[in-house]
Structure prediction request, 284 residues.
Amino acid sequence: MAGRREVPVERAVMAYVRACGVGGEEEALRLWRAARAESRGRLCGLRAPHVDSIHTRAALFAALAAVYERAGAPGPARTAAGVVGQIRDQLRKRIRREMGRAPGAVATVIDSQSVKAAETVGKDSRGYVGAKKINGRKRHLVVDTKGLPLFVMVTPADTTDRDAAKEVLFRLRLMHPEITIVWADSGYAGQLLTWAKKNLDLTLKTISRPKDAVGFVILPRRWVVERSLAWIMHARRHARDYERLIQHSESLITWAAITLMTRRITRRSSRRSTQPASREANRD
Prediction:
C-alpha cells in the first residue's frame, strides 16, 4: 500500500490484510470504506507498516487507523482509538501544558502488573504465573515521565513482558510517533531492544536493580510507572479483574486514569482561585 499518490483499490487493501495473516478482512474493508468516505474520495496511497510487524488483529486495525488518519481521514481512526482514549489524551496534554511541558511526550516508561481474576473471567483470557502464584491477567501500562498514562493493554497473566511489549510498543509507536525512548525493567531486556530499534526506530533502555542493593530501593525512572499503577489501584474495582472481556478491563483502567487527571486539574483550579492576590496585582 506504499508508493503512488492514488486511492488504494479494494484488492490492494485486502492483499495487505491477508499478508498480515491475522484475519479481520471484513472489518478492515469497512474501515477502508469509511476512511475513503470521510476523505470524500481523495484518500491517497498509504504507507502501512511491514506485515512482519503485525501479529494480532488489534495491531492490524491500529496500523490501518493510524495511516488513514495521517492520510486525511481522521474519522475511522478516532473510532478505532475510542472516545475514552481521546479523553485521556486530551487531559494528559492539558496537564503537561500547565506544567510547562510540550503536549506530546518523547520519553516514556513501561511496566506490567499481574492481578488475580474473578470467576467471571474466562479461561481463554486468563493465565497462571507460578513465580507470583497469580491466576488472572496482566496489565501493561505506558506513562510519561510525570506518570500520566499514554496506553494500556491487558493480557493473560502468563504472557511474558517481552512478548506483550512487541504489540504494546508497536501500537504506541503508531499512536504517538513523537516518542523516541522507553525505559523499562530488566524483564524487557534481550532481543526486544534490537527489535524495537530495528522495526520501530525506538530506543528501549532497561534499568536493573543494583547488585549490591539490600531491601527496598527506589530505582530511577521505574518508580514513576509503579506509582501510576498504585494510583490506579486506588479504585477498588481494580484490586481484582472482574471483567469478562479484556476490552472492558482496558476501558475501566483508562477511566480510572481519567478520574485521577480530572481531579488533578480541578484541584489546581481551586487552589488558584483561593490563593491571595500577588503584590504586583495589588499595585494595579
